[in-house]
Design goal:
By secondary structure, the protein is mainly α. It has helices at residues 2-23, 36-43, 49-53, 59-71, 78-91. It has one domain: Cytochrome Bc1 Complex, Chain D, domain 2 (Orthogonal Bundle), CATH 1.10.760. The protein is built from five helices and no strands. The termini are far apart.
Length: 98
């Protein structure tokens, strides 16, 4: 009986874990949003996604970071710059869940 009960708990825990993983992006993947493709294309030209998604910065800090990357050769129009910084600050700001 105990073995059956323990197996039931393990299966229940795996089910909950699988459901949670299906809802959240895998570690290092960019969160969904209209700017995701642009951010992914821009940032992963030089970095793995996890280098970006692990950070939590304010809009000003993201702006400074993206400006720095432009200095290193990233190509963004002014409108793309605003989109990238907006997406990053919304999804990877100081109050955003990891």
């Amino acid at each position: 009986m105990r073995r059956t009960l323990a197996a039931s708990f393990v299966l229940a825990a795996l089910s909950v874990s699988s459901a949670a993983q299906a809802q959240a992006p895998a570690s290092g993947e960019f969160k969904a949003g209209p700017e995701k493709a642009l951010v992914q294309k821009t940032c992963t030209a030089c970095h793995v996604a996890g280098q970006v998604t692990a950070k939590r910065k304010t809009a000003d800090q993201w702006g400074e970071t993206v400006e720095k990357m432009i200095g290193y050769g990233a190509k963004l129009s002014d409108a793309e710059f605003e989109s990238v910084v907006g997406y990053l600050s919304k999804n990877y700001g100081p109050d955003s869940p990891k």
